[in-house]
Design goal:
CATH superfamily of the largest domain: Glycosidases
Number of domains: 2
Strand content: 15-25%
Oligomer: single chain
Number of helices: 8
Number of strands: 10
CATH class of the largest domain: Alpha Beta
CATH architecture of the largest domain: Alpha-Beta Barrel
Distance between the termini: 42 Å
Largest sheet: 7 strands, parallel
CATH topology of the largest domain: TIM Barrel
Shape: globular
Length: 317
């Protein structure tokens, strides 16, 4: 797909990270449903090298490592998929996703211009791509996968980030909704207001795609948690908690998604409140029994100082 085609596709795309290994397979349909009802367009997931290739050239896609089944569950719910193949994923995952056997290969140097590393990396990424292609899961084949990623832009604040070239989309592949927990440490918390404001800033400044990392973190089963001292819970203060229960943060994040869409449509000038026809209104379903009506009553310019909060005021009815 050309870069201009990607820009057309990603006018405003809200994505969530979902870690297939961190949840039971029985939970997948419900997680997809809650993601769609939360207003998301796509679900992003990793391909974990050390989980899928625990021994060299021996592969495992069983149980909750079944990447194809996970992608098909996304498709069944009418969502898009973003595939982060790795090879290094960090993700508070043991050894950052690298298989231990890779470390012991003669002459290898990790994450650098090293032929041994690059050859093994190419083998794994090619294996994943070919597997997804065989199942016709890429968008060009009628499947849900609209993007495959290796390099990413991650952080709490990426609204000022700009791509290296002007003809490619501005994408925020990890918008940290919270943080992970350490044994004996305090529970981390990112306020919803801070998260919501920066999402609005990102889209106002030309953003096309942002991914909530995490929307649902799940659990680090077994010995999969990375270190040092990272807990088995990967709750991450996410909109859906470790057990996939909806939190207030989910509702508030959903508000800002709608607000960001309005910002894209509104001109950056004052809106006359007395002229009802110029007020921006959007109705939003919040599941089976809730609906939110949001009105844009003022300007869409946002202040440059994050501490002042958003300059867009909205009211619900």
């Amino acid at each position: 797909m050309s870069s201009s085609g990607i820009l057309a596709l990603f006018i405003v795309c809200f994505c969530t990270s979902g870690r297939l290994w961190a949840t039971a397979t029985q939970m997948w349909p419900d997680l997809m449903k809650k993601s769609r009802e939360g207003g998301l367009d796509a679900i992003e997931t990793y391909g974990f090298w050390n989980a899928h290739e625990p021994a060299r050239r021996q592969y495992d896609f069983s149980g909750n490592l079944d990447l194809v089944r996970f992608l098909k569950a996304i498709q069944d719910e009418g969502l898009y998929a973003v595939l982060r193949i790795g090879p290094y994923v960090c993700a508070e995952w043991n050894y950052g996703g690298f298989p231990v056997w890779l470390h012991n290969m003669p002459g290898i140097q990790m994450r650098t211009d090293n032929d041994v590393f690059k050859n093994e990396m190419q083998n794994f990424t090619t294996f994943i791509v070919d597997m997804v292609k065989r199942e016709n899961l890429f968008a060009s084949q009628g499947g849900p996968v609209i993007l495959a990623l290796i390099s990413t832009c991650n952080g709490w604040y990426c609204d000022q980030y700009q791509p290296r070239r002007s003809n490619i989309p501005k994408m925020w592949t990890e918008n940290w909704t919270g943080w992970y927990r350490n044994w004996g440490g305090k529970d981390p918390h990112r306020t919803t207001e801070d998260l919501a404001f920066d999402v609005a800033r990102f889209y106002q400044l030309g953003g096309t795609f942002q991914n909530y990392y995490m929307y649902h973190g799940g659990t680090n089963f077994g010995r999969s948690a990375g270190g040092p001292y990272i807990t088995t819970s990967y709750d991450y203060d996410a909109p859906l908690d470790e057990y996939a229960a909806s939190l207030l943060k989910l509702l508030l994040v959903r508000w800002v998604e709608l607000l960001s869409c309005v910002i894209w449509e509104a001109s950056c000038t004052f809106v006359s409140i007395s002229n009802v026809s110029t007020i921006k209104r959007r109705s939003l379903g919040l599941g089976s029994s809730m609906e939110l009506n949001v009105f844009l009553l003022a300007r869409c310019n946002l202040p440059s100082n994050k501490r002042n909060g958003p300059g867009v005021h909205f009211y619900s009815r």
